[in-house]
Amino acid sequence: MNLMDVDRRCLWHPYTQMKDFEREDLLFVDRAEGIVLHGRDGRRYYDTISSWWCILHGHRHPRIIAAVKAQLDRLDQVHLAGTTHEGAIRLAERLVALTPPGLTRVFYSDDGSTACEVALKMSLHYWHLCGERRRTRFVGFERGYHGDTIGTMSLGGTPNFHGPYAPLMMPAFRVPAPYCYRCALGKTRETCAVDCLAPLEALLEERGDEIAGIILEPMLQGAGGMIVHPAAFVRGVAEAARRHGVHLILDEVATGFGRTGRLFALEHAGVCPDFLCLSKGLTAGMLPMAATLTTEEVFSAFYDDYEKGTTFFHGHTFTGNPLAAAAALASLELFDEGALDAARPRMRQLQEGARRFEALPHVGEVRGIGMVAAVELVADKARKTPFPPERRTGWQAYKAGLREGLILRPLGDVVYLFLPLSVTEAELEDILERTGRVLARVGREGAA
């Protein structure tokens, strides 16, 4: 039987309206190498979104493959409840050494959603153990995204992702975040004094004693539209959290491991959170793994005689999986050897090269940071008017991208590149040329 027919009959793909592929085939990927995915149709496609933001050093990096193969000959899986293994220990030691000095403890889980969910549970439980049982609420930001588990959905600010599940969600506070292109306060970058911090400050003044923590994607909101924040905003959030004794949870699931030009995005603002959530690039995209880092103060609240009932009751079957730990350690060795420094010229090339798109009539803004560049398409450039939703501009960009040998996955009308650190100068120039043709075609067709 044709495998695509079996796919239609048996599979349900994530974030996909399956009816779109009733008569069209999904892209059938057969193999991968470097930044290229090879389709079953014989064509080559640039993986311009790093397979959902996780591929760091290119697909099938030989050093990471070798590390995983070697681990397979030794230990494939063991639970981490009352058991340990070398990979989990060495990786935890490396993560503690690489992150800000206040973060001393590592709790493993499976993906970005669970990394953030762990932080929420730890924060809530910590306040419970400290006797501050009024602190049961969390603060999220407009256009924020932290995953698809119940707690993380409750704090997300992307209604299209979470709207139908409102009956499941816990109550949370949501405050504005910067969207400089469409500033709600009418400011420009020249007149901005990070006034969008004011609602958070007011909330903390009024109800800070009810709040356990604030969760933020530092410097770059991913699923909300690849929106870049000023470092002053991240610093302001951290300072407000400190003043009011509220936990700061930084979600670096997408921004960690070099994506923004620093090993961790928090380095742009010089802040240290109470919780740091990592996944995606943790294993360079080879295997699923996540980590939540926290402070000795938080850890100590749970550390007591068993009969005191302070154990953190949370865990996953594949927590700290040996194969994933081996992949992560091999990836960090590549950083030790200069992978991030080697990528910086390409980051400059991307940010400068993307500016060429500003001249296109339906490009409202080009924004970016590090190895991420985003283009917001608009129906009217002068008025910043979005395209009507029924035009499905992002969907048109996706299909046009495939014709150009690009795998794009726009966020609404925002077409973005989220590239592996390993992209070469020639590959990047080729990607920019092809993306320019996609944007020009979609802009014309969208306005028709």
Task: Note down, in words, how this protein is organized.
With 448 residues, the chain is α/β, with parallel strands linked by helices. It is 36% helix and 16% strand. The strands form 4 sheets. Strands 4-12-11-10-7-5-6 form a 7-stranded mixed β-sheet, sandwiched between helices. A hairpin with a 4-residue loop joins strand 2 (36-39) and strand 3.
Which secondary structure elements does this structure contain, and how are they paired or packed?
Elements: H1 3-10, E1 29-33, E2 36-39, E3 44-46, H2 50-53, H3 62-72, H4 86-98, E4 103-109, H5 112-129, E5 137-141, H6 150-155, H7 159-162, E6 173-175, H8 198-207, E7 211-216, E8 220-221, E9 227-228, H9 231-243, E10 247-251, H10 266-269, E11 275-278, E12 290-295, H11 296-302, H12 322-336, H13 339-354, E13 363-369, E14 372-377, H14 393-403, E15 414-418, H15 425-447
Parallel strand pairs: 5-6, 5-7, 7-10, 10-11
Antiparallel strand pairs: 1-2, 2-3, 4-12, 8-9, 11-12, 13-14, 14-15
Helix pairs in contact: 3-12, 4-12, 13-15, 14-15
Features:
448 residues, globular, 7-stranded mixed β-sheet, 15 helices, alpha/beta
Number of helices: 15
Q: Which H/E pattern describes the elements?
A: HEEEHHHEHEHHEHEEEHEHEEHHHEEHEH
Q: Strand sequence of the main sheet, in spatial order? A: 4-12-11-10-7-5-6
What's the gyration radius in Å?
Answer: 22 Å
| Largest sheet report | 7 strands, mixed
Determine the N-to-C terminus distance.
Answer: 41 Å
* Average pLDDT over all residues: 95
